[in-house]
Design brief:
Number of domains: 2
Strand order of the largest sheet: 1-3-4-7-5
Mean pLDDT: 87
Shape: elongated
CATH architecture of the largest domain: Beta Barrel
Strand content: 15-25%
Largest sheet: 5 strands, mixed, barrel
């Protein structure tokens, strides 16, 4: 027995909506993959450009966007007491923290430096491994990047050392230091340029900056592009399945049954 006209229209609408939605999701995944490929291409191209001079570091968002992925070496002093640990960040497939610290520049502004990754203590989230932060003037090399990506959170009012996300404008007000509208992804250990007078004469003056204990295996933007292609294939396959089922059960099968019941 064939479906009534009203039910046939309902099935048609459901099939069109389902096929359209799954096709759109497939296109979205392909677009996400292309965005990451474009970012990777931009990173590779800008990495070949000469390193920026510290005086060229952007002071506004528009200028910062043009400098993303450029190499630069900055000198300044760590604001160690303002170090934050951004939770639920992955590196090499493991959960942990991104350690970020403002670097105070000679002109009084600061740059948020993504210093590296630290593993998480899964028995006690608040137990943090010590991170060595050298005092005095240091030289930090890396590439310019947007601020750390924001993750979903239920409450954006975190004020402790461990946070889910970081807003540069709010953080700048909190520490009462102007932050440039970008971040620096540190790619190698900082170099000690000078020590405070009280530390230079002490027994700890020879501490190596490599003792920070942070991983810097920063993932390339296009590292997981295959994941998006896989998701796109799944969505397109589901779209084809919905379309195929509709064509078979609503168009082909009724005609086959009609011919069987009323042969010529």
């Amino acid at each position: 027995m064939t479906l009534g006209r009203g039910r046939r229209w309902l099935v048609l609408v459901a099939a069109v909506v389902g096929a359209s939605l799954t096709a759109r999701l497939g296109v979205w995944q392909l677009d996400r993959a292309q965005q990451k490929i474009s970012r990777q291409r931009s990173l590779d191209e800008r990495a070949l450009l000469p390193a920026l001079r510290p005086a060229e570091l952007a002071r506004d968002a528009a200028g910062a966007a043009l400098q993303h992925h450029r190499r630069i070496t900055l000198q300044g002093r760590w604001l160690a007491e303002r170090t934050l640990f951004l939770d639920n960040r992955q590196m090499d497939g493991h959960q942990g923290f991104f350690v970020v610290t403002p670097l105070l520049l000679p002109d009084g502004d600061a740059v948020l430096v993504q210093r590296g990754w630290l593993p998480r203590d899964f028995q006690d989230r608040t137990r943090l491994a010590p991170v060595y932060t050298p005092a005095g003037l240091v030289q930090v090399s890396g590439r310019i990047a947007p601020p750390p990506a924001k993750l979903f959170e239920f409450d954006g009012s975190e004020l402790g050392a461990i946070r889910q996300n970081l807003d540069l404008v709010l953080f700048s007000r909190e520490i009462r230091v102007a932050l440039r509208p970008l971040s620096l992804v540190q790619t190698e250990a900082e170099q000690q340029v000078s020590l405070p007078a009280e530390a230079a004469a002490g027994p700890d003056s020879a501490v190596d900056a490599n003792a920070a204990g942070l991983l810097r295996h920063w993932a390339a933007p296009a590292a997981d592009v295959g994941k998006h292609h896989g998701y796109a294939f799944q969505w397109f396959a589901l779209c084809a399945l919905i379309t195929g089922l509709y064509v078979w059960f609503q168009l082909i099968r009724p005609r086959v049954q009609a011919r069987t019941q009323h042969p010529d």
